[in-house]
Amino acid sequence: MVFSSGVFLFIFLPTVLLAHTLIRNNSVRNALLIAASLVFYAYGEPVYVLLLLGSVGINYLFGRILSTRKNRGILAAAVVFNLLLLAVYKYAGFLAELLNGLPFVNLPVPNITMPIGISFFTFQAISYVADTYRSKDKEKTGFANVLLYISLFPQLIAGPIVKYNSVREQISGRTVTVDKLASGIRRFIIGLSKKMLLANPVGFAADKIFGMAPGAIDTPLAWLGAVCYTLQIYFDFSGYSDMAVGLGKCMGFDFPENFDYPYAAAGIRSFWRRWHMSLTGWFREYLYIPLGGNRKGRGRQILNTMTVFVCTGIWHGANLTFILWGFLHGLLMSAETLLTRKNKPERPAFKPLKWLYTVLFVILGFVIFRSDTVSYAFAYIGRMFAFVRLDGAYRVFLSCLTPVFIITLVTAVIACFPIVPSVGSALKEKPCRKAVSAVCYALTFGLYLLCVMTLAADSYNPFIYFRF
Protein backbone atom coordinates (compact mmCIF):
# COMPACT_ATOMS: atom_id res chain seq x y z
CA MET A 1 0.00 0.00 0.00
CA VAL A 2 1.43 3.36 -0.98
CA PHE A 3 0.62 6.72 0.60
CA SER A 4 -0.50 8.18 -2.72
CA SER A 5 -3.05 5.44 -3.46
CA GLY A 6 -6.82 5.79 -3.20
CA VAL A 7 -7.09 2.87 -0.76
CA PHE A 8 -4.66 4.56 1.64
CA LEU A 9 -5.98 8.11 1.30
CA PHE A 10 -9.70 7.41 1.44
CA ILE A 11 -10.06 4.21 3.50
CA PHE A 12 -7.00 3.17 5.51
CA LEU A 13 -5.71 6.56 6.72
CA PRO A 14 -9.04 8.15 7.77
CA THR A 15 -10.03 4.98 9.65
CA VAL A 16 -6.74 4.70 11.54
CA LEU A 17 -6.45 8.43 12.30
CA LEU A 18 -10.03 8.70 13.55
CA ALA A 19 -9.71 5.63 15.79
CA HIS A 20 -6.29 6.69 17.09
CA THR A 21 -7.54 10.21 17.91
CA LEU A 22 -10.68 9.02 19.70
CA ILE A 23 -8.82 6.44 21.80
CA ARG A 24 -7.20 7.98 24.88
CA ASN A 25 -5.25 5.04 26.28
CA ASN A 26 -1.77 4.69 24.76
CA SER A 27 -1.67 0.90 25.24
CA VAL A 28 -4.86 0.55 23.20
CA ARG A 29 -3.53 3.06 20.67
CA ASN A 30 -0.38 0.98 20.31
CA ALA A 31 -2.40 -2.18 19.74
CA LEU A 32 -4.38 -0.35 17.05
CA LEU A 33 -1.19 0.86 15.33
CA ILE A 34 0.39 -2.60 15.43
CA ALA A 35 -2.69 -4.14 13.79
CA ALA A 36 -2.90 -1.30 11.25
CA SER A 37 0.81 -1.56 10.43
CA LEU A 38 0.62 -5.31 9.81
CA VAL A 39 -2.43 -4.81 7.57
CA PHE A 40 -0.58 -2.00 5.76
CA TYR A 41 2.42 -4.26 5.08
CA ALA A 42 0.33 -7.32 4.27
CA TYR A 43 -1.61 -5.37 1.63
CA GLY A 44 1.43 -5.50 -0.65
CA GLU A 45 3.54 -8.28 0.93
CA PRO A 46 1.22 -10.82 2.64
CA VAL A 47 3.83 -13.59 2.79
CA TYR A 48 6.58 -11.36 4.13
CA VAL A 49 4.56 -10.31 7.16
CA LEU A 50 5.83 -13.56 8.68
CA LEU A 51 9.40 -12.51 7.86
CA LEU A 52 8.81 -9.13 9.52
CA LEU A 53 7.35 -10.77 12.62
CA GLY A 54 10.18 -13.31 12.73
CA SER A 55 12.79 -10.55 12.47
CA VAL A 56 11.13 -8.58 15.26
CA GLY A 57 10.83 -11.70 17.45
CA ILE A 58 14.49 -12.69 17.13
CA ASN A 59 15.72 -9.13 17.65
CA TYR A 60 13.44 -8.86 20.69
CA LEU A 61 15.09 -11.95 22.18
CA PHE A 62 18.53 -10.48 21.50
CA GLY A 63 17.38 -7.27 23.18
CA ARG A 64 16.12 -9.13 26.26
CA ILE A 65 19.49 -10.82 26.66
CA LEU A 66 21.45 -7.60 26.04
CA SER A 67 19.35 -5.68 28.55
CA THR A 68 20.87 -7.80 31.34
CA ARG A 69 24.14 -9.02 29.79
CA LYS A 70 26.19 -6.32 28.08
CA ASN A 71 28.08 -8.80 25.94
CA ARG A 72 29.77 -7.73 22.69
CA GLY A 73 29.61 -11.24 21.31
CA ILE A 74 25.83 -11.33 21.66
CA LEU A 75 25.57 -7.88 20.08
CA ALA A 76 27.77 -9.05 17.19
CA ALA A 77 25.55 -12.11 16.72
CA ALA A 78 22.46 -9.87 16.55
CA VAL A 79 24.08 -7.61 13.95
CA VAL A 80 25.27 -10.59 11.90
CA PHE A 81 21.76 -12.07 11.97
CA ASN A 82 20.26 -8.85 10.58
CA LEU A 83 22.95 -8.46 7.93
CA LEU A 84 22.48 -12.09 6.85
CA LEU A 85 18.78 -11.39 6.49
CA LEU A 86 19.63 -8.54 4.13
CA ALA A 87 22.21 -10.66 2.30
CA VAL A 88 19.78 -13.50 1.64
CA TYR A 89 16.78 -11.47 0.51
CA LYS A 90 18.53 -8.54 -1.16
CA TYR A 91 21.95 -9.63 -2.37
CA ALA A 92 21.89 -13.43 -2.87
CA GLY A 93 21.23 -13.23 -6.62
CA PHE A 94 23.74 -10.41 -7.11
CA LEU A 95 26.49 -12.26 -5.22
CA ALA A 96 25.82 -15.48 -7.14
CA GLU A 97 26.13 -13.63 -10.46
CA LEU A 98 29.39 -12.02 -9.34
CA LEU A 99 30.85 -15.36 -8.27
CA ASN A 100 29.76 -16.95 -11.54
CA GLY A 101 32.14 -14.55 -13.26
CA LEU A 102 35.05 -16.47 -11.72
CA PRO A 103 36.62 -19.48 -13.52
CA PHE A 104 35.04 -22.87 -12.77
CA VAL A 105 32.20 -21.32 -10.74
CA ASN A 106 28.63 -22.08 -11.78
CA LEU A 107 26.27 -21.34 -8.92
CA PRO A 108 22.49 -21.35 -9.38
CA VAL A 109 21.15 -17.79 -9.24
CA PRO A 110 18.31 -17.72 -6.70
CA ASN A 111 15.12 -15.97 -7.77
CA ILE A 112 14.14 -14.30 -4.49
CA THR A 113 11.64 -11.45 -4.38
CA MET A 114 12.96 -8.69 -2.14
CA PRO A 115 10.57 -7.76 0.68
CA ILE A 116 9.54 -4.11 0.50
CA GLY A 117 11.32 -1.93 3.03
CA ILE A 118 13.67 -4.66 4.30
CA SER A 119 16.63 -2.25 4.35
CA PHE A 120 14.72 0.20 6.53
CA PHE A 121 13.20 -2.15 9.08
CA THR A 122 16.44 -4.17 9.35
CA PHE A 123 18.44 -1.04 10.17
CA GLN A 124 15.86 -0.10 12.79
CA ALA A 125 16.21 -3.58 14.30
CA ILE A 126 19.99 -3.09 14.51
CA SER A 127 19.38 0.26 16.18
CA TYR A 128 17.17 -1.44 18.78
CA VAL A 129 19.72 -4.08 19.77
CA ALA A 130 22.64 -1.60 19.69
CA ASP A 131 20.81 0.98 21.82
CA THR A 132 19.71 -1.73 24.26
CA TYR A 133 23.33 -2.88 24.57
CA ARG A 134 24.51 0.69 25.21
CA SER A 135 21.79 1.49 27.73
CA LYS A 136 22.87 1.43 31.37
CA ASP A 137 19.35 0.55 32.44
CA LYS A 138 18.27 -3.06 32.70
CA GLU A 139 14.71 -2.40 31.64
CA LYS A 140 12.97 -5.14 29.69
CA THR A 141 11.08 -3.59 26.81
CA GLY A 142 7.89 -5.47 25.98
CA PHE A 143 7.54 -7.33 22.70
CA ALA A 144 4.59 -5.15 21.65
CA ASN A 145 6.69 -1.99 22.00
CA VAL A 146 9.51 -3.44 19.89
CA LEU A 147 7.02 -4.63 17.27
CA LEU A 148 5.45 -1.17 17.11
CA TYR A 149 8.83 0.55 16.86
CA ILE A 150 10.00 -1.59 13.93
CA SER A 151 6.69 -2.01 12.08
CA LEU A 152 5.03 1.40 12.54
CA PHE A 153 3.50 1.98 9.10
CA PRO A 154 4.42 5.66 8.42
CA GLN A 155 8.14 4.83 8.29
CA LEU A 156 8.05 1.05 7.74
CA ILE A 157 8.87 0.80 4.05
CA ALA A 158 10.77 3.96 3.12
CA GLY A 159 11.92 5.64 6.31
CA PRO A 160 13.01 7.92 7.76
CA ILE A 161 15.16 5.51 9.77
CA VAL A 162 14.18 6.13 13.38
CA LYS A 163 16.68 5.30 16.13
CA TYR A 164 15.21 3.35 19.02
CA ASN A 165 16.43 5.78 21.68
CA SER A 166 14.67 8.69 19.96
CA VAL A 167 11.17 7.16 20.26
CA ARG A 168 11.48 4.79 23.23
CA GLU A 169 9.65 7.17 25.57
CA GLN A 170 7.12 8.28 22.95
CA ILE A 171 5.80 4.75 22.44
CA SER A 172 4.28 4.68 25.92
CA GLY A 173 4.13 8.37 26.85
CA ARG A 174 3.08 10.40 23.81
CA THR A 175 0.17 12.83 23.59
CA VAL A 176 -2.04 13.81 20.66
CA THR A 177 -3.19 17.43 20.45
CA VAL A 178 -5.30 19.39 17.98
CA ASP A 179 -2.29 21.50 17.02
CA LYS A 180 -0.16 18.40 16.37
CA LEU A 181 -2.95 16.81 14.36
CA ALA A 182 -3.45 19.92 12.20
CA SER A 183 0.29 20.40 11.72
CA GLY A 184 0.74 16.72 10.86
CA ILE A 185 -2.06 16.71 8.27
CA ARG A 186 -0.64 19.85 6.67
CA ARG A 187 2.83 18.29 6.53
CA PHE A 188 1.37 15.12 5.00
CA ILE A 189 -0.38 17.10 2.25
CA ILE A 190 2.82 19.03 1.46
CA GLY A 191 4.66 15.72 1.07
CA LEU A 192 1.85 14.28 -1.05
CA SER A 193 2.01 17.38 -3.28
CA LYS A 194 5.76 17.01 -3.72
CA LYS A 195 5.19 13.44 -4.83
CA MET A 196 2.11 13.83 -7.03
CA LEU A 197 2.60 17.31 -8.51
CA LEU A 198 6.39 17.51 -8.88
CA ALA A 199 8.10 14.11 -8.70
CA ASN A 200 5.67 12.23 -10.94
CA PRO A 201 5.70 14.63 -13.95
CA VAL A 202 9.50 15.01 -14.04
CA GLY A 203 9.88 11.30 -13.29
CA PHE A 204 7.77 10.39 -16.32
CA ALA A 205 10.13 12.40 -18.54
CA ALA A 206 13.19 10.87 -16.86
CA ASP A 207 11.90 7.32 -17.39
CA LYS A 208 11.20 8.10 -21.03
CA ILE A 209 14.72 9.41 -21.65
CA PHE A 210 16.59 6.79 -19.62
CA GLY A 211 14.63 4.14 -21.50
CA MET A 212 16.36 5.17 -24.73
CA ALA A 213 19.66 3.80 -26.01
CA PRO A 214 22.56 6.21 -25.31
CA GLY A 215 23.32 6.46 -29.02
CA ALA A 216 19.84 7.87 -29.63
CA ILE A 217 20.26 10.61 -27.00
CA ASP A 218 21.89 13.93 -27.77
CA THR A 219 23.38 16.42 -25.32
CA PRO A 220 20.27 18.56 -24.55
CA LEU A 221 18.11 15.47 -24.07
CA ALA A 222 20.73 13.80 -21.87
CA TRP A 223 20.89 16.84 -19.59
CA LEU A 224 17.10 17.07 -19.46
CA GLY A 225 16.85 13.42 -18.38
CA ALA A 226 19.60 13.82 -15.78
CA VAL A 227 18.05 16.96 -14.28
CA CYS A 228 14.57 15.42 -14.29
CA TYR A 229 15.77 12.32 -12.43
CA THR A 230 17.72 14.45 -9.94
CA LEU A 231 14.51 16.36 -9.21
CA GLN A 232 12.36 13.22 -9.20
CA ILE A 233 14.41 11.33 -6.62
CA TYR A 234 14.49 14.36 -4.31
CA PHE A 235 10.79 15.20 -4.43
CA ASP A 236 9.76 11.54 -4.43
CA PHE A 237 11.82 10.64 -1.37
CA SER A 238 11.53 13.93 0.54
CA GLY A 239 7.80 13.89 -0.20
CA TYR A 240 7.49 10.42 1.31
CA SER A 241 9.55 11.54 4.31
CA ASP A 242 7.32 14.59 4.78
CA MET A 243 4.27 12.34 4.70
CA ALA A 244 5.85 9.97 7.25
CA VAL A 245 6.84 12.83 9.58
CA GLY A 246 3.36 14.31 9.24
CA LEU A 247 1.61 11.03 10.00
CA GLY A 248 3.91 10.49 12.98
CA LYS A 249 3.00 13.94 14.30
CA CYS A 250 -0.71 13.13 13.94
CA MET A 251 -0.13 10.14 16.23
CA GLY A 252 2.07 11.96 18.75
CA PHE A 253 5.47 10.82 17.44
CA ASP A 254 8.35 13.15 16.58
CA PHE A 255 10.23 11.50 13.73
CA PRO A 256 13.59 12.94 12.61
CA GLU A 257 13.77 15.23 9.62
CA ASN A 258 15.23 13.52 6.57
CA PHE A 259 15.94 16.38 4.15
CA ASP A 260 17.04 20.00 4.49
CA TYR A 261 17.18 21.46 0.98
CA PRO A 262 20.21 19.39 -0.09
CA TYR A 263 20.41 20.94 -3.56
CA ALA A 264 21.18 24.29 -1.94
CA ALA A 265 24.33 22.80 -0.38
CA ALA A 266 27.78 24.17 -1.24
CA GLY A 267 30.02 21.12 -0.94
CA ILE A 268 29.45 17.37 -0.83
CA ARG A 269 29.96 17.34 2.93
CA SER A 270 27.16 19.90 3.28
CA PHE A 271 25.04 17.90 0.84
CA TRP A 272 25.24 14.81 3.06
CA ARG A 273 24.31 16.86 6.11
CA ARG A 274 21.07 17.65 4.27
CA TRP A 275 20.32 14.51 2.18
CA HIS A 276 18.70 11.39 3.72
CA MET A 277 19.83 12.64 7.12
CA SER A 278 18.42 9.66 9.02
CA LEU A 279 20.56 7.23 6.99
CA THR A 280 23.63 9.47 7.29
CA GLY A 281 23.09 9.71 11.05
CA TRP A 282 22.59 5.94 11.32
CA PHE A 283 25.87 5.18 9.52
CA ARG A 284 27.70 7.81 11.54
CA GLU A 285 26.50 6.47 14.88
CA TYR A 286 26.62 2.73 14.23
CA LEU A 287 29.51 2.42 11.73
CA TYR A 288 31.70 5.51 11.30
CA ILE A 289 32.22 6.27 15.01
CA PRO A 290 32.73 2.59 16.03
CA LEU A 291 35.38 2.33 13.27
CA GLY A 292 37.23 5.22 14.89
CA GLY A 293 35.69 8.18 13.06
CA ASN A 294 38.21 11.00 12.76
CA ARG A 295 39.96 10.22 16.04
CA LYS A 296 42.83 8.13 14.65
CA GLY A 297 44.50 10.39 12.13
CA ARG A 298 43.66 11.67 8.65
CA GLY A 299 44.47 8.42 6.86
CA ARG A 300 42.15 6.37 9.07
CA GLN A 301 39.45 9.03 8.68
CA ILE A 302 39.62 8.71 4.88
CA LEU A 303 39.43 4.91 5.12
CA ASN A 304 36.43 5.13 7.45
CA THR A 305 34.72 7.64 5.14
CA MET A 306 35.22 5.41 2.09
CA THR A 307 33.94 2.39 4.03
CA VAL A 308 30.79 4.24 5.07
CA PHE A 309 29.99 5.46 1.56
CA VAL A 310 30.65 2.12 -0.11
CA CYS A 311 28.30 0.59 2.49
CA THR A 312 25.79 3.35 1.71
CA GLY A 313 25.88 2.32 -1.93
CA ILE A 314 25.54 -1.36 -1.07
CA TRP A 315 22.60 -0.55 1.24
CA HIS A 316 20.73 0.99 -1.68
CA GLY A 317 20.76 -2.16 -3.77
CA ALA A 318 22.42 -5.14 -5.37
CA ASN A 319 23.95 -3.41 -8.38
CA LEU A 320 27.43 -2.18 -9.21
CA THR A 321 25.95 1.20 -10.11
CA PHE A 322 24.95 1.80 -6.48
CA ILE A 323 28.41 0.82 -5.26
CA LEU A 324 30.04 3.12 -7.83
CA TRP A 325 27.71 5.95 -6.76
CA GLY A 326 28.70 5.46 -3.12
CA PHE A 327 32.39 5.23 -4.07
CA LEU A 328 32.14 8.52 -6.00
CA HIS A 329 30.62 10.34 -3.03
CA GLY A 330 33.23 8.78 -0.73
CA LEU A 331 36.02 10.10 -2.97
CA LEU A 332 34.49 13.58 -3.06
CA MET A 333 34.03 13.61 0.72
CA SER A 334 37.62 12.45 1.19
CA ALA A 335 38.92 15.11 -1.21
CA GLU A 336 37.06 17.81 0.73
CA THR A 337 38.50 16.45 3.98
CA LEU A 338 42.04 16.66 2.61
CA LEU A 339 41.59 20.10 1.05
CA THR A 340 39.71 21.77 3.89
CA ARG A 341 41.75 23.37 6.64
CA LYS A 342 40.29 23.25 10.12
CA ASN A 343 39.20 26.54 11.73
CA LYS A 344 39.79 28.45 8.51
CA PRO A 345 36.75 30.53 7.41
CA GLU A 346 35.46 29.90 3.92
CA ARG A 347 35.75 32.73 1.41
CA PRO A 348 32.23 33.91 0.39
CA ALA A 349 33.41 34.45 -3.19
CA PHE A 350 34.05 30.72 -3.57
CA LYS A 351 30.59 29.64 -2.42
CA PRO A 352 28.82 29.93 -5.84
CA LEU A 353 31.60 27.91 -7.48
CA LYS A 354 31.41 25.33 -4.71
CA TRP A 355 27.65 25.09 -5.20
CA LEU A 356 28.08 24.59 -8.97
CA TYR A 357 30.63 21.83 -8.41
CA THR A 358 28.30 20.16 -5.90
CA VAL A 359 25.26 20.27 -8.18
CA LEU A 360 27.29 18.97 -11.12
CA PHE A 361 28.63 15.94 -9.25
CA VAL A 362 25.28 15.23 -7.58
CA ILE A 363 23.64 15.13 -11.03
CA LEU A 364 26.38 12.93 -12.49
CA GLY A 365 26.16 10.68 -9.44
CA PHE A 366 22.43 10.27 -9.88
CA VAL A 367 22.92 9.33 -13.53
CA ILE A 368 25.05 6.43 -12.29
CA PHE A 369 22.50 5.69 -9.57
CA ARG A 370 19.60 5.63 -12.09
CA SER A 371 21.34 3.50 -14.73
CA ASP A 372 20.78 -0.25 -14.85
CA THR A 373 24.41 -0.98 -15.72
CA VAL A 374 27.76 0.76 -15.33
CA SER A 375 28.31 0.70 -19.09
CA TYR A 376 24.97 2.49 -19.67
CA ALA A 377 25.89 5.08 -17.01
CA PHE A 378 29.21 5.97 -18.66
CA ALA A 379 27.66 5.97 -22.12
CA TYR A 380 24.90 8.31 -20.90
CA ILE A 381 27.39 10.66 -19.20
CA GLY A 382 29.38 10.62 -22.44
CA ARG A 383 26.32 11.90 -24.31
CA MET A 384 25.94 14.71 -21.75
CA PHE A 385 29.36 16.03 -22.76
CA ALA A 386 29.39 15.00 -26.42
CA PHE A 387 27.90 18.37 -27.52
CA VAL A 388 25.91 16.78 -30.34
CA ARG A 389 22.35 17.28 -31.53
CA LEU A 390 20.25 14.58 -33.19
CA ASP A 391 16.99 15.22 -35.01
CA GLY A 392 15.21 12.26 -33.38
CA ALA A 393 16.42 13.20 -29.90
CA TYR A 394 15.47 16.83 -30.50
CA ARG A 395 11.90 15.79 -31.33
CA VAL A 396 11.73 13.84 -28.06
CA PHE A 397 13.17 16.88 -26.28
CA LEU A 398 10.45 19.15 -27.69
CA SER A 399 7.71 16.60 -26.95
CA CYS A 400 8.66 16.73 -23.27
CA LEU A 401 8.55 20.52 -23.07
CA THR A 402 4.80 21.01 -22.84
CA PRO A 403 3.61 24.19 -21.07
CA VAL A 404 2.50 22.19 -18.01
CA PHE A 405 5.84 20.38 -17.86
CA ILE A 406 7.82 23.62 -18.12
CA ILE A 407 5.80 25.16 -15.26
CA THR A 408 6.33 21.99 -13.20
CA LEU A 409 10.07 21.94 -13.93
CA VAL A 410 10.53 25.60 -12.98
CA THR A 411 8.44 25.13 -9.81
CA ALA A 412 10.49 22.08 -8.85
CA VAL A 413 13.79 23.95 -9.29
CA ILE A 414 12.53 26.88 -7.19
CA ALA A 415 11.23 24.49 -4.51
CA CYS A 416 14.75 23.04 -4.13
CA PHE A 417 15.76 26.21 -2.27
CA PRO A 418 14.60 27.34 1.20
CA ILE A 419 12.48 30.25 -0.02
CA VAL A 420 9.30 29.32 1.89
CA PRO A 421 11.09 28.87 5.26
CA SER A 422 12.86 32.21 4.75
CA VAL A 423 9.56 33.98 4.10
CA GLY A 424 8.02 32.21 7.10
CA SER A 425 10.86 33.36 9.36
CA ALA A 426 10.52 36.93 8.10
CA LEU A 427 6.77 36.93 8.88
CA LYS A 428 7.09 35.16 12.22
CA GLU A 429 6.95 38.33 14.32
CA LYS A 430 4.70 40.31 11.97
CA PRO A 431 1.10 41.18 12.91
CA CYS A 432 -0.16 39.50 9.73
CA ARG A 433 1.26 36.07 10.63
CA LYS A 434 -2.12 34.62 11.67
CA ALA A 435 -3.76 35.74 8.44
CA VAL A 436 -0.84 34.31 6.45
CA SER A 437 -1.13 31.03 8.38
CA ALA A 438 -4.84 30.81 7.55
CA VAL A 439 -4.10 31.42 3.87
CA CYS A 440 -1.44 28.70 3.97
CA TYR A 441 -3.89 26.18 5.37
CA ALA A 442 -6.39 27.11 2.63
CA LEU A 443 -3.68 26.69 -0.02
CA THR A 444 -2.76 23.33 1.51
CA PHE A 445 -6.35 22.17 1.14
CA GLY A 446 -6.24 23.34 -2.49
CA LEU A 447 -3.09 21.29 -3.04
CA TYR A 448 -4.84 18.25 -1.60
CA LEU A 449 -7.73 18.62 -4.05
CA LEU A 450 -5.24 18.99 -6.90
CA CYS A 451 -3.46 15.82 -5.75
CA VAL A 452 -6.75 13.91 -5.67
CA MET A 453 -7.62 15.05 -9.19
CA THR A 454 -4.15 14.09 -10.39
CA LEU A 455 -4.48 10.69 -8.76
CA ALA A 456 -7.79 10.11 -10.53
CA ALA A 457 -6.44 11.19 -13.91
CA ASP A 458 -2.90 9.71 -13.95
CA SER A 459 -1.76 6.09 -13.62
CA TYR A 460 1.98 6.94 -13.34
CA ASN A 461 2.66 6.80 -9.60
CA PRO A 462 5.90 4.99 -8.62
CA PHE A 463 7.81 5.34 -5.35
CA ILE A 464 11.55 5.15 -6.07
CA TYR A 465 12.68 4.14 -2.59
CA PHE A 466 10.34 1.14 -2.47
CA ARG A 467 13.16 -0.59 -4.38
CA PHE A 468 15.39 -0.36 -1.35
Q: What is this structure, in a nutshell?
A:
This protein is an all-alpha fold and 468 residues long. The protein is built from 19 helices and no strands.
What does this structure look like?
- It is a single chain.
- The protein is mostly helical and 468 residues long.
- It has 19 helices and no strands.
- It has helices spanning 6-22, 26-44, 48-68, 72-99, 118-134, 143-151, 164-173, 178-210, 219-250, 268-274, 277-288, 298-316, 320-339, 351-370, 374-384, 391-400, 403-415, 419-427, 433-457.
- Helix 8 packs across helix 17 and helix 9 (219-250) crosses helix 14 (351-370).
What is the chain-wise order of helices and strands? HHHHHHHHHHHHHHHHHHH
How confident is the prediction overall: mean pLDDT? 89
Largest β-sheet summary: none
Q: From the alpha-carbon coordinates, what is the Rg to the nearest angstrom?
A: 23 Å
- Number of contiguous helices: 19
* Inertia-based shape: globular
Strand content: under 5%
The low-confidence parts are none
How far is it from the N-terminal to the C-terminal residue, by CA? Answer: 15 Å
Number of strands: 0
Helix content: over 70%
* Structural class label: mainly alpha
Describe the secondary structure blueprint for this structure.
Layout: H1 6-22, H2 26-44, H3 48-68, H4 72-99, H5 118-134, H6 143-151, H7 164-173, H8 178-210, H9 219-250, H10 268-274, H11 277-288, H12 298-316, H13 320-339, H14 351-370, H15 374-384, H16 391-400, H17 403-415, H18 419-427, H19 433-457
Helix pairs in contact: 1-2, 2-6, 3-4, 3-5, 3-6, 4-5, 5-6, 8-9, 8-17, 8-19, 9-14, 9-15, 11-12, 12-13, 13-14, 14-15
